[in-house]
Design goal:
The protein is mainly α and 269 residues long. It has helices spanning 3-38, 46-67, 75-93, 99-126, 131-148, 150-165, 182-199, 226-233, 263-267. The protein is 63% helix and 0% strand. Helix 1 (3-38) packs antiparallel against helix 2 (46-67) and helix 2 packs antiparallel against helix 3.
Length: 269
């Protein structure tokens, strides 16, 4: 093997080792960004969500610039920092009822940018050519984040309205994600027939029939028996009048039970 061949083989081995290390680092960075993308769902307010998304975008941008070896202009990262500062300042000047939507939009945009940065970094480290697809992936992630935070945005908007009309202005709101599991859906389906049964009035009770006394039939005695002969000698007894019973008035029908509203009807718009 010549000296030039040995140099080429050594360079190829170093490049392969660098790509392996870069791929492992990119996978760790992708896991960290995904963790940051899930963490804002449990933050205290939309502003903290936006702060965490801005940090994720800044970290991935710095790592991508370092991994590109000068292919990405570092001035782009400084420009994004200035843009984030202007965005936070503008959102803080909005009315309190409009701030949740502004912070949520910024959070979705920066999380999508962070995912796009991770994808582009992996492309640079692995030598691939799918950089345009990374932009589409980041845009899709941002739209998904915006859709997933709709319930949270409405909660904070209602909290701001409540704080405006409250006597004490220091009202504290704590957001909890809606519980959507199989047990909740099963309980909802089981409660539906019971609610409809409560709303329907009970059928009227039928009046009981008047009681009629039954007279026992006389016992038949054989004609040739001594008891029959003595019965013929005796005078026929006067007929016993049948007892008369007055009809019992039917009980009054029960009053219909009051209508009850379920919690789902109260919360329905």
């Amino acid at each position: 093997m010549t000296w030039e061949g040995a140099m080429r083989e050594g360079a190829s081995n170093r490049n392969a080792a660098f790509r392996r290390r870069g791929g492992a680092a990119a996978r760790r960075l992708a896991g960290a960004v995904l963790a940051l993308g899930v963490a804002p769902a449990f933050a205290l307010d939309p502003r903290e969500n936006a702060v965490e998304a801005a940090l994720a975008d800044g970290m991935t941008t710095a790592f991508g610039v370092a991994a590109s070896s000068g292919a990405i202009n570092p001035l782009g990262g400084l420009l994004t920092i200035a843009t984030k500062a202007v965005t936070f300042h503008h959102a803080s000047t909005l009315p309190e009822t409009e701030q949740p939507a502004a912070y949520s939009a910024a959070s979705a945009m920066w999380l999508g940018s962070a995912v796009s940065n991770v994808c582009i970094t992996v492309v640079f480290l692995t030598g691939g050519g799918l950089a345009p697809a990374c932009l589409a992936l980041g845009a899709a992630w941002g739209l998904k984040t915006w859709d997933d935070t709709e319930h949270e945005r409405r909660f904070w908007e209602r909290c701001a309205i409540l704080r405006q009309f409250a006597v004490q202005q220091d009202v504290q709101c704590v957001y909890a994600p809606p519980a959507k599991d199989a047990a909740t859906e099963l309980a909802a389906t089981q409660d539906a027939p019971q609610d409809s049964a409560w709303r329907e009035p009970l059928p009227p009770v039928a009046a009981p029939r008047p009681a009629v006394a039954k007279q026992a039939a006389p016992r038949q005695v054989p004609a040739k028996s001594p008891a029959a002969k003595s019965a013929r000698r005796q005078k026929p007894a006067s007929p016993v009048p049948e007892p008369t019973l007055e009809p019992v008035p039917p009980p009054p029908a029960p009053a219909p039970e009051p209508l009850l509203a379920t919690s789902r009807e109260i919360e329905a718009p």
